[in-house]
Amino acid sequence: EVLTEDPETAFCTLADREDLNPEEGSIYHCLYQFTRNEKLTENNKLLCEVCTQRHYGPKKNIKSEKYVYTNAKKQMLISLAPPVLTLHLKRFQQAGFNLRKVNRHIKFPEAIDLAPFCTVKCKNVAEGNTKVLYSLYGVVEHSGTMRSGHYTAYAKMRSINSHLSDLVIRGQSPQALETEPVKGQWFHISDTHVQAVSASKVLSSQAYLLFYERLL
C-alpha cells in the first residue's frame, strides 16, 4: 500500500543520521546500512497509479490497463519503537552452492540510540524527544559451523524496569527515564553451567541475537 506522505518529512528521522559516521563492523553500521535511502530506477521503478491515470485516464478493465512506472526513493525506518528491541544478526553467507557461517565480530554497545533510524513521526516517542535509548540485557552466541554447534547466552541480572509495563500494556511513551545502561551483574549460561562475567567479556562475544530494553 502506498500512502501519501509530506515529501518534506517522509525521509526525516528523529536525529540526524548523517552525524553518525558509524564504524564499519559495528551494530550502528548494520542499522545504518539497513535503513539507508535507496533509489529505485530502471528495472526497479515504482508503479505509479497517479501517473498512470494522468497519462491514460481511468480504466475500468484492469487486465487491459497499461501502467506507468517512475523513478522513486525508498527507505525503511522505524515507525513504532518497541519496548524490547531484538536484533538478529545474519551469520551466514552464500559461498557457491553452499552456506558459510560468518564468524566476524560485530561491535555492539551496552546502550544504543535508535533515534537516527526512527521516522520523525515515530508513534510512541514523546514530542520533542530526539533520543530513543535502549539498554542491553541479553546476548545469544553460537559456536561451531552451519552444520553443528552450540548456543550459549549472556544475561544481565538487573533491577526491574517498571516503565516497560507502561510500554507493553498501555503503549505509553516514556517521558523522562534513565539515559545510561541499567546497572547489574552479567552471567554466562551454557546448558546447566552459569558463571558471573564482566561486561567487557559480553561485549567481546560473537553475538547472534541481541536483546535491549527501552530506557527513553
From TrEMBL:
The keyword Nucleotidyltransferase does not apply. The keyword Hydrolase applies. Signal peptide: none annotated. GO terms for cellular component: cytosol; nucleus. Gene3D superfamilies: Cysteine proteinases (3.90.70.10). InterPro entries: Papain-like_cys_pep_sf (IPR038765), Peptidase_C19 (IPR050164), Peptidase_C19_UCH (IPR001394), USP (IPR028889), USP_CS (IPR018200). Keywords: Hydrolase. GO terms for molecular function: cysteine-type deubiquitinase activity. Residues 1-215 form the USP domain. It comes from the Eukaryota. It comes from Sula dactylatra (Masked booby). The gene is Usp16_1. This is UBP16 hydrolase. GO terms for biological process: protein deubiquitination. PANTHER family: UBIQUITIN CARBOXYL-TERMINAL HYDROLASE.
